[in-house]
Design goal:
Layout (H helix, E strand, L loop, with lengths): L3 E13 L5 E12 L2 H14 L2 E4 L5 E15 L19
Antiparallel strand pairs: 1-2, 1-4, 3-4
Length: about 90
């Protein structure tokens, strides 16, 4: 079976050891897989690979934790070219 392109929305949380504040991050990654189930599995691997930790300017440890795959959508390979829209989010203005 030929691999297809998918867009995977992954959810991450960022926290530091001395703060109660949590930053959330929603990222879109391109995934190549033979079907949607495989795309989800591969997206989970990508998410775990992008977990990270570092020290901030105050010397606190900052940790990026992968929380899960939000959604996976197929992308038509025929339309995959420079400038093509692969994600859109509509929100109500305040």
């Amino acid at each position: 079976m030929k691999d297809e392109w998918y867009g995977a929305q992954l959810y991450f949380r960022c926290s530091s050891e001395d703060s109660d504040e949590v930053l959330v991050d929603s990222r879109i990654y391109l995934i190549r897989a033979p079907d949607k189930a495989a795309a989800i599995a591969r997206a989970e691997v990508v998410g775990r690979e992008h977990e990270d930790s570092c020290r901030n300017g105050d010397g606190e440890e900052v940790v990026w934790t992968f929380e899960g795959v939000v959604r996976v959508s197929s992308i038509n390979e025929e339309t995959l070219e420079h400038g093509v829209e692969v994600f859109s989010r509509l929100d109500w203005a305040d």
